[in-house]
Amino acid sequence: MPEVTLTPAAERILTAAEKLFYDNGIHAVGVDLIAAVAGVTKKTLYDRFGSKDALVTLYLRRRDERWRTHVLATLEAAPRMKPARRPLLVFDALESWNAGNSRGCAFVNAQAELPDPGHPARPVIVAQKRWLLDIFAELAGDAGLPKPKRLAESLLILFEGALVAGSAGVLPTAIARARDTAGLLIERG
């Protein structure tokens, strides 16, 4: 996903939109508010992005880039970890990422708000979840774990469930519990 070069005004718009969309929800935030927070006119917003849908799509792409970078940095920071335990690092990445993200997964939230499969942000949402599934499968395969694809599917389900349960306040320790459960799945093979 190549980084788009933005003008300073467009960068301010995107930065404002990222915070507003995540904190308040996509539908709750209008372009007037985004423009006001960014210190630009609504015309400038439309000149730079064309539509709110395009801005939402870029917001999710940018967030996905940051998430992927965070996960990969977490994996790179523990090169000596036993290969069979490396999938657990994705849960560690989530734990540290979630510390500054109180509303849970921006992609789960966006999917709930954007039910139209034709919305331009939907492929970004799907790609983010597929990438996560692929990371789990790659780590499980690299470790020589049995049935890496099936294990990856189970890890993704644990991961997503923990993210939702934790952000809903149902189980504040959901990510740590999911990591422990993932460890048991890995050990059982």
UniProtKB/TrEMBL annotation:
Residues in the DNA-binding region annotation: 30-49
Domain of life of the source: Bacteria
Keyword match DNA-binding: yes
Pfam families: TetR_N
Domain HTH tetR-type: 7-67
Record key words, sorted: DNA-binding
UniProt protein name: DNA-binding transcriptional regulator, AcrR family
Organism of origin: Amycolatopsis australiensis
